[in-house]
Design goal:
187 residues; alpha+beta; four-stranded antiparallel beta sheet; 6 helices; 48% helix
Length: 187
């Protein structure tokens, strides 16, 4: 009992506020624009610029693994291929961009390949691309984030970004991932 006779909880007993975790769109646009300019100043060609953005995305993805799997999910990780893809499409996308990715499809031609589609990625919305660099797709940074998260959670894959129906992220898993998933289904 407290000194005043009432049953109060101490400020130390209250949970820490998490906040909304939202960043203003204008702040994000400015920061991302600066990131692209920084990478562009260090690059001679569009492929080199995209490689730099992809590598930066991979470094961000490593940090997000800790954030979402350790803190948010108590260390529980997915073991099924479809579940990790649905996690990326919904939970991760909502946390990063405020909405789910538009579509997830499995390739008809290759059992190792999936497509994650987004009509208008946030990272491309505020970047004006010069005509001589028209093939530049800044969403390669998101591809790097997704690749890093998938690989870091035990689903090694290569993820690339392509201009098709907006932006399509092609996720190509290693053969061992698909084989492991098939063996889990057989149990």
């Amino acid at each position: 009992m407290s000194l005043t006779g009432r049953n109060r909880t101490s400020i130390l007993d209250k949970p820490l506020s998490r906040g909304k975790g939202e960043v203003s769109l204008s702040c994000f646009a400015l920061l991302f624009s600066e990131v692209v300019q920084y990478c562009q100043n260090k690059s001679q060609t569009v492929p080199e610029l995209q490689t730099r953005l992809h590598e930066l995305g991979k470094r961000i993805g490593v940090k997000l693994i800790d954030l979402y799997f350790v803190r948010e999910r108590g260390g529980k990780r997915e073991i099924k291929l479809l579940n990790i893809l649905l996690f990326v499409k919904s939970t991760l996308w909502k946390a990063l961009f405020g909405k789910e990715a538009d579509k997830l499809e499995h390739s008809n031609d290759d059992e190792n390949t999936y497509y994650l589609m987004e009509k208008e990625p946030l990272v491309n919305r505020y970047i004006s691309v010069p005509r001589d660099k028209s093939s530049l797709n800044c969403a390669v940074m998101i591809a790097g984030i997704v690749e890093s998260i998938l690989t870091g959670t035990g689903f090694p894959a290569k993820v690339t970004a392509h201009w098709h129906k907006g932006t399509t992220y092609m996720v190509k898993f290693e053969d061992s991932v698909v084989a492991r998933d098939k063996s889990l289904e057989e149990r």
